[in-house]
From TrEMBL:
Residues 10-236 form the Helicase/UvrB N-terminal domain. GO terms for cellular component: cytosol. Transmembrane segments: none annotated. This is Type III site-specific deoxyribonuclease. InterPro entries: Helicase/UvrB_N (IPR006935), Helicase_Restrict-Modif_Enz (IPR050742), P-loop_NTPase (IPR027417), RE_endonuc_C (IPR045572). GO terms for molecular function: ATP binding; DNA binding; type III site-specific deoxyribonuclease activity. It comes from candidate division WS6 bacterium GW2011_GWC2_36_7. SUPFAM superfamilies: P-loop containing nucleoside triphosphate hydrolases. It comes from the Bacteria. Residues 762-864 form the Type III restriction enzyme C-terminal endonuclease domain.
Length: 883
């Protein structure tokens, strides 16, 4: 079958016209007018000023934001941003024909960053030649630069027809390249000078891949291009952006496939010794290893990356007892193969990118199972449409597939048979015909995992491109394709509907790059593109790409969105402090500080206290046993979650635009670390070893302990501390000490702050910092209330000790009430804790405990007007009968 190309896609025509219209007003140059001595150069008769007038009009009509334009009127250098999968190569090839037809330009140099991209361009030139001939009645004479075939370059310079040369950036990026040398075969001339003489139009395909350096700027200048055109989905340095099709627009307009994610990952693995060795960071001192580990953060665990040195103890650094005995012995680069390695004191050694402590086989099994299952489901759904379904597996260890005992090959065959029998009720025939691999070989005919070797291996890319159309035929039995992840850029087959990444090691590949291999709109058996109707039900699209990663969907889509934001810019802005507004000034109000009212208030609340607790140990043990018996620990599982990305937005998080399609799980093969549970509980709760042993000996759910010891430890410590805190607060008593909070300390304050403040007339300070709008509103209300004589937001140094940490109340104030009948005035002194509620039951447990302790503290010093919780001034008045 042969792919057919669409000539009337509006967005493609707009991208082409945006470039062609840059030179509007320039006359067409006839062939006979182009001949200059022997060569036939490009000629363009238009001033640079006119080009940029055209540019400004195009940018305005295209609604390109000025901040994105990167306008530079000194350079005839223009950028086109096209989302992956929308036909970037087709667009610039057709732009070549339009420039030829409109202005008579004939010499074009397409510069590519790699063999993979070059093979893709050459394949597209092959596939589109008949299509373009039908549209323009013109054939492009194209060739791939080869330093051994210099006659092609001479023909490029001397010929008077439409010529396109495709060249790798590596072919002219150094002085010792053949193209930059004087050779007898070129009559003593440099090939670069011959190319320069025709003033080629330079088209830069993926310029961010090694074409933006200072060296390459110089190399491009040596070509003396008539102008340059840059095409990419991910420009790092766009110049004079003339057209932009963002990922958001392409996705939401249905120009690429919709995406669903079947995430497969382990859960409840806190007790596993999970280590991912990312890389070595070379510093001026000793090398450091970047590791991803499970850190204990407070009472929970969080996966984070960190830098580690030799002799670092992972248990000590992460506060996670699962890493007991894991001390870094050596961080180095192997002299034999330059592999980065890390060795631990227990003898285990990891190489860069490798992971320890994960259930590889179970995860691979579920990934392969769901890839096959979705493949069969779509095959059934598409059969009447004549659409071939392909699934693409990316792997990072060739041996896992090419050898009969390779884990991926064995799992695929086993699961294919299972899923086929379940779907069709019979044994599959000729399994070997439905799957195959595309892998690079060395010169000695051995398969290789070496990324550099693969990227230079022209033969494998030739094979991938050669088979592109064959794989789309319904007569071709091959449906499941295995390829090394490093070859990913070579795959852009439109009928890839599933992409499954079966990597053993950390992948540096970006999600957009991974997904991009399957984003193109699919084709049917005749080679025609099949487009979903606007009325299609969400989730029932034909153009739906299923991505099966071995990580949570949240991690996947978050990284995917972060890459889009990084590469395209984003309307959302992180809130930053406005440094230009300067600091807020705070001054002391001495009239208030020295007033009798405030002095009397301070005398009432200035005393410090200490607390004492005593309780019966057996009662404590029994309560701890009851709480530990309520602990439920989930087993380690392989979790599969399916979601579909409904739309992409510059203004919204992807997670706000997903459609959940369900979830399921299977049991994982757990491999838990040995920890000293008794010692850890004792250390973290301050209970004696004897008491901990008594508690654990009485629990009735010891099976929970073995499921996930680290989680059980965390929950047990949490529950025991809760019992201890409750008991201590219940029986706590406070006693005044001989110490006081000195009133003189109000003189010790920072006269300026960058925090938010509100002005105050009745406060000890003339501006009050606030932590919330509740506090702000309370200050505004009491400052304007006639009954309030003075107040202070209690400083950070005014702290009450409690068993669960220090407590700093919010406000102290004096209110005055006049008695109309009896005459006279009565003063009331309060300490107030403001909260978002007046309801006790709506407070958090820790808030309740601290308030209960504060009540007993103030009672001990003879102060009975501690009010908590208080939502606002009205609730204070209501609770104190001062309305």
């Amino acid at each position: 079958m042969k792919l057919k190309f669409e000539a009337n896609l509006q967005y493609q025509k707009e991208a082409i016209d945006s470039v062609v219209k840059l030179f509007e007003g320039a006359p067409y140059i006839r062939p006979e007018d182009r001949i200059s001595q022997e060569v036939s150069p490009n000629i363009l008769k238009i001033t640079q000023e006119s080009v940029f007038k055209n540019y400004d009009n195009i940018a305005f009509d295209s609604l390109i934001d000025e901040s994105k334009q990167a306008r530079n009127s000194e350079l005839l250098d223009f950028s086109v941003e096209m989302e992956t999968g929308t036909g970037k190569t087709y667009i610039y090839l057709r732009t070549i024909l339009e420039l030829y037809r409109s202005y008579g330009l004939t010499k074009f140099l397409i510069v590519v960053p790699s063999i993979a991209v070059k093979e893709g361009v050459m394949k597209t030139l092959d596939m589109t030649k008949d299509h373009f001939n039908d549209l323009y009645n013109e054939k492009i004479q194209y060739f791939e630069y080869d330093s051994k075939k210099t006659t092609r370059v001479r023909h490029f310079a001397y010929g008077n027809t439409l010529q396109v040369m495709v060249i790798n950036v590596q072919a002219f990026n150094a002085d010792d390249n053949i193209i930059n040398q004087e050779r007898d075969a070129n009559n003593g001339a440099k090939l670069i000078d011959l190319i320069r003489s025709v003033r080629p139009v330079v088209i830069m395909d993926e310029p961010q891949e090694g074409m933006d350096s200072k060296n390459m700027e110089k190399r491009f200048d040596q070509l003396d291009p008539l102008f340059k055109l840059r095409y990419s989905a991910t420009h790092k340095k766009p110049i004079n952006l003339v057209y932009r099709l963002t990922p958001y627009e392409a996705y939401n307009q249905g120009l690429v496939k919709k995406i669903e994610v079947y995430s497969i990952h382990e859960e409840n693995t806190q007790s596993n010794v999970e280590i991912e060795f990312m890389e070595i960071k070379l510093t001026s001192a000793k090398p450091e290893a970047k590791l991803q580990l499970n850190y204990k953060v407070g009472i929970d665990f969080k996966t984070k990356t960190g830098l580690f040195k030799e002799l670092d103890d992972l248990e000590e650094k992460t506060k996670n007892p699962a890493y007991k005995g894991w001390i870094i012995e050596r961080i180095y680069k192997d002299l034999m193969d330059s592999t980065e390695k890390i060795k631990f004191s227990n003898g285990i050694e990891l190489t860069k990118g490798s992971k320890h402590g994960w259930d590889k086989e179970s995860i691979f099994r579920e990934q392969i199972r769901w890839t096959i299952r979705r493949h069969f489901q779509k095959k059934e759904q598409y059969k009447d449409l004549g659409i071939k379904v392909l699934s693409l597996f990316f792997i990072d260890r060739v041996a896992n597939y090419v050898f009969p005992e390779g884990i991926i090959r064995k799992l695929f065959v086993e699961l294919f048979i299972q899923e086929y029998k379940e779907k069709y009720g019979k044994e599959p025939l000729n399994i070997d015909q439905v799957h195959n691999g595309y892998f690079a070989k060395t010169r000695s005919d051995e398969y290789t995992d070496n990324v550099n070797s693969m990227q230079k291996n022209k033969e494998i890319y030739n094979l991938i491109m050669k088979d592109k159309e064959r794989l789309l035929s319904l007569e071709e039995p091959l449906e499941f394709i295995f390829s090394h992840s490093a070859l990913g850029v070579g795959w852009d087959n439109p009928n890839v509907f599933q992409i499954c990444t079966l990597n053993e090691s950390h992948s540096e590949a970006k999600k957009r790059q991974e997904i991009g291999r399957g984003l193109r709109i699919c084709v049917d058996k005749t080679g025609e593109r099949y487009r979903d109707l606007d009325t299609v039900t969400e989730g029932q699209e034909i153009n739906l790409l299923t991505v099966i990663p071995n990580e949570s969907y949240h991690a996947f889509v978050t990284q995917y969105q972060d890459e889009i934001i990084e590469e395209t810019g984003d309307a959302r802005q992180t809130k930053v402090r406005n440094a230009k507004k300067g600091a807020n000034k705070i001054g002391i109000n001495r009239d208030i500080l020295n007033s009798d009212d405030f002095q009397n208030l301070w005398k009432k609340i200035q005393k410090k206290t200490k607390y004492m607790v005593s309780f019966r140990e057996q009662e404590l043990v029994d309560k701890c046993v009851d709480e530990l018996n309520s602990i439920v620990v989930r087993e380690q599982i392989i979790q599969t979650q399916a979601i579909q990305i409904k739309s992409l937005s510059e203004l919204q998080d992807i997670n706000e635009n997903i459609l959940s399609k369900g979830e399921t799980s299977t049991k994982a093969k757990s491999s838990v670390a040995n920890i000293d549970l008794i010692d850890q509980i004792s250390e973290q709760t301050s209970l004696s070893i004897k008491t901990v042993i008594e508690i654990l000996s009485k629990i009735s759910n010891s099976n929970m302990l073995t499921r996930n010891p680290i989680v059980y430890l965390t929950d047990a410590v949490k529950q025991i501390k809760k019992v201890l805190n409750n008991e201590m607060v219940r029986v706590i008593s406070y006693k005044p000490t001989n110490e006081e909070f000195p009133i003189e300390d109000f003189e010790k304050f920072d006269p300026q702050t960058y925090n938010d403040v509100v002005s105050a007339h009745k406060g000890v300070y003339d501006a009050v910092e606030y932590d919330s709008n509740i506090e702000k509103d309370f200050v505004l209300d009491i400052d304007q209330e006639n009954k309030v004589k003075a107040f202070v937001k209690l400083p950070k140094w005014y702290k009450i000790n409690t068993p669960i940490g220090t407590y700093n109340p919010d406000f102290a104030l004096i209110m005055e009430k006049k008695d109309l009948e009896k005459g006279g005035e009565t003063k009331y002194y309060f300490v107030v804790e403001t909260k978002g509620t007046d309801e006790w039951n709506e407070l958090k447990e820790e808030e309740k405990m601290k308030i209960e302790c504060a009540v007993k503290h103030f009672e001990a010093i003879g102060f009975e007007k501690y009010m908590a919780p208080i939502k606002n001034l009205n609730s204070l008045k209501s609770k104190t009968n001062l309305s």
